[in-house]
Amino acid sequence: MLMGRALARSAQRHPDKTAVIFEDRSWSYSQFNARVNRLAHALSGLGLGKGDKLAVLALSGNEYLEIYHATAKLGVWMVPINHRLKAPDIAYRISHSQASGLVLGPEFVVLYDSLPPEARQAVAGCLLMLGQGPALPGAHAYEELLANSREDEPQAELHPEDTLFIGYTGGTTGRSKGALTSNRAIVAGYLYKVLDYGIRQGGVTLNPGPFWHTAPRNFTSLALYMGGTAVVTKRFDPREYLELVQRHRVTYSFLVPTMFNAILSLPDHRDFDTSSLSMLTSGGSPMPAPLEEAALNRFGPVLHEFYAATETLIITNITAEEMRRKPRSVGRPAWDVFLRLLDERGAEVPVGQVGEIYLQGPSLFSGYYRDSQKTDEAFRDGWFTLGDLGKLDEDGYLYIVDRRTDMVISGGENIYPSEVEEVLLRHPKVAEAAVIGVPDPTWGEVLKAVVVLKPGQESSFEELRDFCATRLADYLKPRSVDFVDQLPRSPVGKILKRKLRDRYWGDSEFKV
Predict the structure, then answer these.
(1) pTM of the prediction?
(2) Does residue 426 form part of some domain?
(3) Which residue among 7, 154, 179, 488 is least enclosed by CB atoms within 10 Å?
(4) DSSP letter at 108?
(5) Residue 178 belongs to what H/E stretch?
(6) CA 260, CA 247: separation in Å to the nearest integer?
(7) Percent of the chain with pLDDT over 70
(8) For residues 507 and 503, what is the distance between their CA atoms, to the nearest angstrom?
(9) What is the pLDDT of residues 191-216, one digit of tens each?
(10) Where in this chain does the record put each AMP-dependent synthetase/ligase domain (predicted)?
C-alpha cells in the first residue's frame, strides 16, 4: 500500500498509455514516471529525505501530480497550501509543518514576497519555481532541475504507515490543524472508491478542484493508481469542464456543489455530450435538494454523493437511486467503515435519534501533527469524531444534522439550522442562506436567517417566514431575516457561522 511504488507499477504495465493530459500537452506513463523520478532525485540532491516536509503553493497542473508522487517515492511529506489564504496563514502552515522546502507557482511570487522573513528563510534552501525560470533570488527552476537529474527509481525505505502529506483542515472552529495522512490511508481510500463507485481500470478522470484540496488531487491520482488517464485543469471553468468531458470521453469526475450549480446555470449545458460519464460524485459540503434534483435530471443515475473529511477520506456514499428513496441522507458507510452515534455520556443513541458521529476505518488519518491534545480530544476509545451530529435510520442510512457548534437551543428545544436552511434554499429568490441563533430575553436564543438573494430579486422577512411556515414546525421558523450581499467564508468555501454569530452576540460571555 505504497502510492509512490504504484506509479512505477503502472508505468511498467502501461508504458505507452497516456497518463496525464494538461492543456495542450500529454505524457505517457513511461514519460510521466521518468519526470517523477527526475524530480525525486533533484529533491534528494537539495537535501530532502524521508520525514522532511515540502510545501506546495501552486495552481493545479501536471507538476502538482509529479510533486505528489515524487515525495511519495522519497518518504518526504508534502504540505499542500491553499493559495487563497493570506500571508499570515501561509506562514503559519510553513512554520507549523516545519517545511524546509517550497514549490512555488509563478502566480504567487508577490504573495511569497509578502511572507514574514522567517517563513521565507525556512524554505530558502529548497525553493523551486514553476514556470519560465526562477523569478526569485536563490530559487531553482523546476524544469532545469528535472533536465539535469536521473530517471532511475529512487531507493528509500518505505512503509504503509509513513506519512504521505499533511492536510490542513478548514479551520472553521479555530486554528487550522494539520492532519497526518499515510500511504495506507490513501491507498485504502483508492480501493474503497473502486468498490463503492465501480471505477474500472483504464478510466479517464477530470476533477477540476484545486489540488491543494485532498479530494480532487486523490480522485485524480486514483486514475494513475488504476492505469487510467488523468485530465488536469489549472482552474475550474464550467464551460471548459463540459468541453473536456466531451473531448476526452471522461468516465468519472468529482465536483463540489458550487461547481454543479455553475455548470447547470449555463444556458447551453445540455448541448455538450456527457454520456461517457459512468460516475459523477459530489462532496465537500451537502448538496441542497433542489440542486441534487437538477443534477440528477441532467446527468442521470450516475450521480453519487459522499460524506468525507481530510482526516477520514470517504465515510459514506449514496447512489442516485438511493437519493430518491432517502432524501437528505449521505448514504451508508463505505467498505470497512463503521459508525457509532453517541450521546454526551458516550452511550449509543437509538435509531432515529441525534448523536455525535464516531467512526473507525482503514482510511483514517494518523493524528494531528504537533497537537496531541487535539488528537486525544477527537478520539473516544479508539473511535474518531469530526464533531458532526447525525442520525441513522432503520436501514442504516446516515443523515448529517449539523455540527455540534451550530446547534441552537431555543426554549429548551434543540434546533439544527441545516433543516431550516434546506427549506430556505428551495425559495426561488434565495441563492444562499445561513441560519444561526441570536440572543433573546425570553427564549435564550431564537433563529435568524442571513440570506443572499439571487441577482435582481427582492424579498422580505414576511415572505420568507410565510414560505417556511408551510414547510416547517412553528419553532423552526426564523424569527428575523437579514439580507446581505455575501456570506463570510473560509478559504475552502465553508460558511463561517461563528463570524455571523459574533455580529449579534458581541462581547457577551455566553453565546448559547
Answers:
(1) 0.85
(2) yes
(3) 488
(4) G
(5) strand 178-182
(6) 19
(7) 95
(8) 9
(9) 988 888 888 889 999 999 999 999 99
(10) 8-369
In single-letter form, the type of residue at position 322 comes to E
- Please state the domain count of the chain: 1
Q: Which three cell numbers stand for residue 18?
A: 497516456
Compute the Cα dihedral for 110, 491, 294, 463 and give only its sign: negative
**Gap between the terminal Cα atoms of the chain:** 46
> Residue 476 maps to which CATH number?
3.30.300.30
Is position 439 within any domain? yes
352-380 pLDDT per residue, tens: 999 999 999 999 999 999 999 999 999 99
Domain of residue 428: give its range: 414-505
Question: What are all long-range contacts of 271-277, with beta carbons under 8 Å and residues at least 24 apart?
Answer: 272/242, 272/243, 272/245, 272/246, 273/245, 273/246, 274/242, 274/245, 274/246, 274/299, 276/204, 276/245, 276/246, 276/249, 276/250, 276/251, 277/245, 277/250, 277/251, 277/252, 277/253, 277/302
119 occurs within a structural domain: no
- The grid coordinates listed for 229 are 488517464
Q: Give the Å distances, CA to CA, from 487 to 81, 235, 363.
A: 23, 23, 33
Predicted confidence band of residue 466 (pLDDT cuts 50, 70, 90): very high
Residue 288: is its pLDDT beyond 50?
yes
Is residue 294 in a domain?
no
Neighbours of 25 (CB within 10 A): 10
Q: How many C-beta neighbours within 10 Å does residue 145 have?
A: 18
Dist CA 142 CA 149 (whole Å): 11
Q: Are 415 and 475 in contact (CB under 8 A)?
A: yes
Instruction: Compute the residue count for the chain.
Output: 512
Cell of 209: 478542484
